[in-house]
Amino acid sequence: MSELSVNHLLGIKYLTEEDINLIFETADHFKEVINRPIKKVPSLRDITIANLFFENSTRTRLSFELAEKRLSADVINFSAASSSVKKGETLIDTVNNILSMKVDMVVMRHPNPGAGVFLSKHVNASIINAGDGAHEHPTQALLDSYSIREKLGEIQGKKVVIVGDILHSRVALSNIFALKLQGAEVKVCGPKTLIPKYIEKLGVTVETDLTKALKWCDVANMLRVQNERMEISYFPSTREYTQQFGVNKRLLDSLDKEIVIMHPGPINRGVEITSDVADSKQAIILDQVQNGVAVRMAVIYLLASKIKQ
Description:
By secondary structure, the protein is α/β, with parallel strands linked by helices. It has 2 domains: 12-136 and 289-307, Aspartate/ornithine carbamoyltransferase (Rossmann fold), CATH 3.40.50.1370; 138-286, 3-Layer(aba) Sandwich (Rossmann fold). The protein is 39% helix and 15% strand. The protein is built from 11 helices and 9 strands. The chain has a 5-stranded parallel beta sheet with strand order 7-6-5-8-9. It has a 4-stranded parallel beta sheet with strand order 2-1-3-4, sandwiched between helices. The protein is globular, with a radius of gyration of 19 Å. 44% of the residues are buried. The model has no long low-confidence stretch (mean pLDDT 91).
């Protein structure tokens, strides 16, 4: 397969397994490129990409921007905090104003679930969802899967547990879709108050005992507690959360096997994982960051090649 089945990357749930394989093969090629002394390729010299971030983001925005520049695209950055959105301008007006500058692709993070899908129906540009509310974050799930594949050789048949705030996490949802599509077994683990009611309908099982979950898995993806999305308190205290759902080196060393530790960042050190876990050889957190650029280059490149047709 040489092209994606979709014209936008709105969520993992719209992709096929062939799409994911194509993205990974393309990312393998770009990973080689970014490890060269000259890290740029002229692939997208005639493509203009607008990064629209209606929510704060450092890592994702920088990763996308670097991916775009490595491909030699022209880049426009837009932050809603300092824009006319604050003056009441609608999303479509904002985007149409940007598109009138002849933009080919929009990378958008937005607090409202479905914002990317809505936009894709109303504007004539390729849309990449860089996170929509607590809904999906497809490039994060792709780089997570890519990192597991790189570390363990394949994803088919691997056991992955996603630990923490599943309820507010777009990373969890996209990861569940991506891992299931590639044949992994998935469990979620966290306080009952942070596990969505109907999560088992997605083909995952729930485990509330962290030690049992870790004994079962090959990979543990540790999520940050998203205090900024919580209007009420879902657990008594951070200290109590850490005692029940935090991973420390002692706990890791007590398992009878070596598991892989992942984290989408930013890490609350000492809450989800201790520093000695984050910095251990079992953690592939910095690999995830490096792979993020290659995977985003692959997604942008494959979508752009459909624009050019």
